[in-house]
Specification:
The chain is an alpha/beta fold. It has twelve helices and 15 strands. It has two domains: about 1-130 and about 280-340, Alpha-Beta Complex (Quinone Oxidoreductase, Chain A, domain 1), CATH 3.90.180; about 135-270, 3-Layer(aba) Sandwich (Rossmann fold), CATH 3.40.50.720. Helix 9 links the parallel strand 12 (about 240-250) and strand 13 (about 270).
Length: about 350
């Protein structure tokens, strides 16, 4: 099968960073695995970061060539003996596991419990834009923040830092769908418009103090904060803007030591969101990712959640994947970038 390999931790401008290759097909699926013919893939920051860590001894990586990619849509070709959710011919979407070969290949084995049927309204390219950011945003809001998935938290305020990015775009929509008053941050006119179009009630400038922006819109305190960018920059601001007993969740790691006592005074809860945790540790509730993707898929088909695809390249090959990585590394992306067709 065709695949794109990450061989060395090189700048994406170097053709050796991502290369076209012919590799053996995956083995026949067993257990809960399904074999998927990949029709489209999306690119996320985790792809670019893992590419640069792809070297012997790097934390969290295995040495040697790797197939990256953690967002895909495709068609089931075969299923393992324990599979109950899918059959050959089903169109699916998923984000996969970072412990296994990724989606930058024509065929991929993936556990059925982290896969859902593709939303009927979306083409494969559109569907591939959705899984990783959907899982990350939903788990952040429901699993970690404790927002009632059935609307019982209606009226609470959610601040989404970096609302125009992939995860921020889904967090705005999921928060709004669950009845929250969503406030997003953005700094450019085009990213501000994007956040408003997705349902943010207010948009404030993250290049200015968050407290000033919130005060200006009559919301001096929020109940929840989702950090999608640069937690070091915002860590000391949380104490001023989150109500007592509120919750902060981050999808990005800190680079500098964090003063935990800064949030202790208000008894703020803090959580990390890592969408690969369930698949990495084979948790008993892995199937929750199937369920949440299916639920959001229903919202998409009902017209209640929009696809976040904004840019597309074709075909799927190393040159276009390098271009996609470069686009993400430019830090100017709004929404999601997808590659489709082999």
């Amino acid at each position: 099968m065709k695949a794109i390999l990450a061989n060395e931790p090189l700048p994406v401008s170097d053709p050796r960073s991502l290369v076209d290759a012919e590799v053996p097909d995956p083995p026949a699926p067993q257990g809960h695995d399904i074999l998927v013919r990949v029709e489209a893939i999306s690119v996320n920051p985790v792809d670019t970061k893992t590419r640069m860590l792809n070297q012997p001894g790097a934390a969290g990586t295995k040495p040697g060539p790797r197939i990256l990619g953690w967002d895909a849509a495709g068609v089931v070709r075969a299923v393992g003996e324990q599979v109950t959710l899918f059959k050959p011919g089903d169109a699916v979407y998923y984000a996969g596991s970072n412990q296994r070969p990724g989606s930058n290949a024509q065929l991929q084995l993936v556990d059925e419990r982290i896969v859902a049927k593709k939303p009927a309204k979306l083409e494969f390219a559109q569907a591939a834009a959705m899984p990783l950011t959907t899982i990350t945003a939903y788990e952040s809001i429901v699993t970690h923040m404790g927002v009632d998935p059935d609307g019982g938290s209606k009226g609470a305020r959610l601040l989404v830092i970096a609302g125009a990015g992939g995860v921020g775009s889904m967090a705005i929509q999921i928060g709004r769908k669950l009845g929250l008053v969503v406030i997003a941050t953005a700094s450019r006119p085009e990213s501000t418009r994007w956040c408003r179009d997705l349902g943010a009630r207010h948009v404030i400038n993250h290049r200015q103090p968050l407290k000033d922006g919130l005060t200006a819109i009559g919301a001096p305190a929020v109940d929840y904060v989702l950090v999608c960018s640069d937690i070091d920059l915002y860590w000391t601001q949380f104490i001023d803007i989150v109500r007592p007993l509120g919750t902060v969740c981050s999808i990005v790691r800190n680079e500098n030591p964090a003063d935990i006592l800064a949030i202790q005074r208000k008894s703020l809860r803090f959580a990390w969101e890592g969408m690969f945790s369930r698949s990495t540790y084979q948790t008993a509730d892995m199937i929750e990712q199937h369920r949440l993707l299916a639920r959001v898929g229903d919202w998409i088909d009902a017209g209640e959640v929009k696809c976040t695809l904004t840019e597309k390249l074709s075909p799927v090959n190393a040159a276009n994947l390098r271009a996609a990585h470069a686009r993400l590394e430019s830090k100017g992306m709004i929404g999601k970038l997808v590659l489709s067709g082999w």
